[in-house]
Design brief:
366 residues, 3-stranded mixed sheet, 14 helices
Length: 366
């Protein structure tokens, strides 16, 4: 499973600077004028995980392969985007394809960087973007509800369920509430996802602050934190310009030294990844051998066959069993053989729920 986030926000809030830092590329233009991103940019970045290096060292793996995270830099949305204003409207479809939304909010004052609305107010900015996404969802739903209403009259239970859910979501949107505010049962989740609504996606608010406020935040970030808590969303504070500088440093030692001088414990990228994982309910398991040690991303609650399917669909189809070692046992007992000798390698079947950090060898037959 990948991790796919659309980076959204008003023009000139630091989206493209953050994107460049995240992917350590110059793929997106980061210039001081609106709409500098004229097409969605996609970048992939490795998920930093110290556990993978520990496992590789113990297993004497020739190489390590971290899991990949994908970020999509969407053009700056503006008020009226759902009606075709600016360039944002043509990229709403790209947001639909993502798993989550990273909403970058400007929380810094700088007279040299023009704000599209003339002043800094991240709460207002968040509401502008949310409103545009809700309007786009309403337009999308109106057509779906009309079509589903006709199909539901046939008495088909599936279409009736789809129609009922679509009606509930539309009522919430009409009331100025995002689709994710609607309570959805486990049975309805598949139908809910089929609606492909922009405001159904979980949100991570990223507060972009000035360099001297990266460690402490400011009054704006406190207000965003309160807003996120009220919505059940998540938030992090970063300085995109600092992240850009970190991305240009070659070694881990240089990066750590730079972070220390800035009074920061870790890079903003790590915070975004960690919060993103929590947001999407993801976790990591590992495979290890002499050729490579590899990290895999799977949803929390996934059973062993589903985890095996992350490697290859044949692994899931022909699943026989999983030989599992907990991360602490693998590292504490010197690897696979030590864990075996200590009776810490377990043979698990199809019902096993994978735990974060598991080191797994799958047995399968096709």
């Amino acid at each position: 499973m990948g991790f796919n986030c659309g980076i959204v926000g008003l023009p000139n809030v630091g989206k493209s600077t953050l994107f460049n830092a995240l992917t350590a590329t110059a793929a997106a233009q980061a210039e001081n004028f609106p709409f500098c991103t004229i097409e969605p940019n996609v970048g992939r970045v490795a998920l930093p995980d110290a556990r993978l290096d520990q496992i590789a060292k113990i297993a004497a793996s020739a190489k390590t392969v971290p899991t990949q995270l994908e970020f999509v830099d969407i053009a700056g949305l503006v008020k009226g985007a759902s009606q075709g204003e600016g360039l944002g409207n043509q990229f709403l479809g790209n947001i639909r394809e993502t798993d989550a939304v990273i909403h970058v909010l400007r929380c810094f004052e700088d007279p040299d960087v023009v704000h599209v609305d003339g002043s800094v107010d991240p709460i207002r900015d968040a509401e502008v973007i949310e409103t545009e996404l809700m309007l786009a969802d309403l337009e999308s739903l109106e057509g779906q509800v009309s079509s589903l209403a006709k199909k539901a009259r046939s008495g088909d239970k599936e279409f009736k369920a789809q129609f009922d859910l679509a009606e509930r979501v539309k009522a919430a949107l009409d009331d100025g509430k995002p689709a994710r505010s609607v309570s959805v049962s486990e049975d309805e989740r598949r139908i809910f996802k089929m609606l492909q609504l922009l405001t159904s996606k979980p949100i991570l608010y990223v507060c972009n602050v000035a360099e001297d406020e990266a460690a402490t935040g400011n009054e704006w970030t406190q207000k965003v934190e309160a807003m996120a808590a009220e919505q059940g969303a998540r938030m992090v504070v970063i300085c995109a310009s600092i992240e850009s500088e970190i991305a240009q440093l070659d070694s881990e030692d240089e990066r750590n030294e730079f972070l220390e001088t800035m009074g920061l414990e870790e890079a903003g990228l790590n915070k975004i990844i960690r919060e993103g994982y929590k947001l999407l309910g993801l976790q990591t398991y590992f495979t290890a051998g002499p050729k490579e040690a590899r990290a895999w991303t799977v949803r929390i609650g996934a059973q062993a066959p589903e985890a095996a399917g992350c490697i290859h669909t044949d692994f899931e189809k022909g699943f026989i069993k999983a030989e599992v070692i907990a991360f602490d046992d693998f590292t504490g007992l010197g690897g696979e053989q030590g864990a075996k000798d200590a009776g810490k390698m377990r043979q698990e079947g199809k019902e096993y729920v994978v735990a974060d950090g598991d080191v797994i060898l799958f047995r399968f037959n096709v």
